[in-house]
Amino acid sequence: MSQTAAQPASTTPAVELVGIVKRFDEVTAVDDVNLAIADGEFFSLLGPSGCGKTTTLRMIAGLEFPTEGSIRLHGHEMALRPPNKRPVNTVFQSYALFPHMSVAQNVAFGLQMQKVAKSELDDRVAESLKLVQLTGMEKRKPKQLSGGQQQRVALARALVNHPQVLLLDEPLGALDLKLRKAMQLELKELQQRVGITFVYVTHDQEEALTMSDRIGVMSEGKLLQVGTPEEIYEQPRTRMVADFIGETNFLPATHAGTGRVRLVNGEEIDAPIDGVAGQELTLTVRPEKMAVVATEVPPDPGVNAIEGIVHRRVYLGNALTYEVDVAGDVRLHVRHENAPGQQRFDTGDRVRVCWDPSATAVLEA
Amino acid sequence: MAQTTLPPRKADQLEGQAATAELEKSAERAASRRGMFMAAPGFVYLFLFFALPLLIVFVYSFANRSPTGRTILANWNLDSYQRLLDPFVVQIAWRSFVLAAGATAICLLVGYPFAYFIATRSPKVRAALLVLVMIPFWSNFLVRTYAWRMLLGSGGPVSQVTEFLGLGETRLLFTTTAVMIGLVYGYLPFMILPLYASIERVDFSLVEASRDLYASGWQAFRRVTWPLTRPGVVAGSILVFIPSFGAYVTPEILGGSRTTMLGSYIVRQFLQARDWPFGSSLSFVIMLAMLGAAFVYFRVGGKTL
Hints:
The structure holds two protein chains of two kinds.
Chain A: E1 15-24, E2 27-37, E3 42-46, H1 53-61, E4 68-73, E5 76-77, E6 88-91, H2 103-113, H3 118-131, H4 147-159, E7 165-169, H5 177-194, E8 197-202, H6 205-211, E9 214-219, E10 222-227, H7 229-234, H8 239-244, E11 249-255, E12 260-263, E13 268-270, E14 280-285, E15 290-294, E16 304-315, E17 319-326, E18 330-337, E19 350-355, E20 361-363
Parallel strand pairs in A: 3-8, 3-9, 6-7, 7-8
Antiparallel strand pairs in A: 1-2, 1-4, 4-5, 9-10, 11-12, 11-14, 12-13, 14-20, 15-19, 16-17, 16-19, 17-18
Helix pairs in contact in A: 2-3, 2-4, 3-4
Chain B: H1 2-5, H2 14-60, E1 64-65, E2 71-72, H3 79-82, H4 87-119, H5 123-134, H6 141-152, H7 157-164, H8 176-201, H9 204-212, H10 217-245, H11 249-254, H12 262-271, H13 276-302
Antiparallel strand pairs in B: 1-2
């Protein structure tokens, strides 16, 4: 998961969006998106519903044309080309399998449209169905398949065409949790096997973190941040990104010289920061990076420790969450793994919340 | 029935099973009685005013016509069925078929794009357009057909336009063309409405999927939209073809003596020729033919989904 999909500067990106804008009447669905996706990369567009991620995907597919900007696939301009003239294929959210065709006919459709010879077509359909483990289902109608199987047909129907880029629009959204988890790993494995660039749209942050080489987080039509799952999770640049990916705490603060910030109550702590003193900032720290410690225990040097009062303790089974009121009106969530021999704290206890300054991300806003 | 659908039970529960089965059976009978009671008025009505008259027509078709035009219910024979093969009758049947098939084809050609247009509008526009399609039903069919007589007649608006354009007077009234125009006009809504219903149901992401899979706009229509809307095409075609085939008012008012269709011919048997057995056999055979054709058509068209 920690591997970084570096973008070799020498090769042209598989997908390149330059200044893409899409307006529907008065609504700007996609607002000046610039993005380069490397060949062979598993790239996720992540964001809440209505953030413009699906519209962006549809513009790459050619099902929507951008109002402004340029779309290049392997360096070729595609922005206004119809979908049937683009070397990309899509796995649709609801699969969009043709209900009047069998599994084999569905998979063969793209090849027939490209006038692929019958013998080659049969081979490729069989090969593609084997790839998604649906051999033997050729004659079934989509209705006779389970959701997971339909999903595989949709995948086979797209992959059989050997597209340069495969676009996936929340392909696992309709599956139940267990199947979704299994398919996540399977998809990732498949992507590595076929070596095709995947552009994956999802609103499920966990899905994006698990599968992607890189993630682009979108909100209200804008691309907020692009980075590896680790970068996005550990070093979010805006409040929106930090908030959308996982759970997090926000601490308002003021810049107090290199490496130091002042909290609302005047307490000063360490944070990885330089720049202009006096600037208003927001610090964010993930709950699992913090610890609740009894006040009697002296804090380790170099670790941030601020005092607070336990508001409540939430038992989660595998973990515990403490809600601790600190620095005036800030309520921090601190997550402890449910390990044996841990001291428990109760509502009203005076405690210290500690964390390593390096676990702090400083947000622009 | 109820007993066989019960799951198998252990032997020591056999007695309980029998009791349960008995209860279930009587509950089922009660439900069936209630259903019968609810449907009774419909049954009675259909029997009295549909099945019985049909039976009478069937019986009359084997009867004799007296020289004065009375129907004699004796000496049952197949004469009136033999007369169906008379070249004159065959000619009228063929003409009816051609006109009905032509009207159906034109309705489909005109109706499909229009239904598609309606189905792809915003809900508001859709509702308005559908009302417009149905507005003609709010006035009498006979009156509307007479209106066409005015429009198509010599010196009428259509003729005036062609004269003005220097194309000379048009003589449309009392021609096959006039009947065709009347049929298309009269039955077009019956084509548009079922087509609209089936097009509106099409999941357009399927069309997008086909475009994504390298289909051109036309190929997407041919391979996806058309097969998915075939049930609407079948329903619309039947709704236009059957009444057109037996049309009476339209050919009577807009057609001439050389455009007689089956409907008019049957009416003539009953009212003018006073040959009830022949009119009956004609009616009955047409009904059977329609039923058979509709059955086959539904089978063929319905198979696609």
